[in-house]
Specification:
The protein is α/β, with parallel strands linked by helices. The protein has one domain: Metallo-beta-lactamase, Chain A. The protein has ten helices and 14 strands. Strand 4, helix 4 and strand 5 form a beta-alpha-beta unit. It is globular, with a radius of gyration of 20 Å. The N terminus is likely disordered.
Length: 318
Amino acid sequence: MNSKLIFFILSILIISCKNREDLAKVEVKVSDNFDQYITVLGIAQDGGYPHINNTEEFKGVKEGEFAKELVVSLGIIDQQKKKKFLIEATPDLPEQLAMLDEGYLHHEKIIDGVFLTHAHIGHYTGLIYFGREAMGSKDINVFAMPKMKWFLENNGPWSQLVDLQNIKINSLENEISVAITENIEITPFLVPHRDEFSETVGYRIKGKNKSALFIPDINKWSLWNKNIIDEIKKVDYAFIDATFFKDGEIPRPMLEVPHPFVQETIELFKNELKEIKSKIVFIHFNHSNPLIHKNNKKRMQLEKEGYQFANTGDIFPL
């Protein structure tokens, strides 16, 4: 083996060790500095990234041109009380639970509770992994609004999860807070969306020091009975719907799947201070939205204006 090759191999080993050291520093920082926090466990719309019927995306991920993205989910961790919660039960739930367990908080329970927003595939279908064909769990706490609760209890295969006591459904009410620990409370609020099987809610998450909004799905800001600008001013972070960047983005009528385009949201906030814009954390990107890619020029320009974009692994202290 020649000296150049030896030097190259040693360099790779040194860089690899340095990367592991940096990762360890991040983990220590998270556990040492924040008693309660939110972590991002996925950023993609229900279909994930790469997306079905888009072979080039799968090829791009395989070849390292693009990054795989999991479906939108937030983890809520209270290190002080040794409890962890999920918002959304996505098709990627097994991987997201493993991320929480390995990277944030490990204890005898895989999860202390799961909060659902609505009955679209990216937001509840992961519950099936708690069933007898997979985990065979016992009394996993699931928090759901009345219509969502009825839907799960009266339609298979979800009803089997209830009958076999794999999950235990806890009822939520609009604008009524739930204390998930002594330090954190969550409040559901109704938002207009395509409610074929259930109502749709966003969540207000309040810790001892910080608070957040989570609104991954809404039809249009103008259809909500609240003013999104005013609501964002009340919190420290706002994880909001960024499904599509602009009209005409997908090859079907976009009225079939209404969402506030990122362009529309930016227009709403154009006269707001950078301090307000920086509270916005765009999330729930459809595979067609170019802003899902970190190196997108428009995304980088919006970041300069103050807007934030959710990345898996991001930490937001509460």
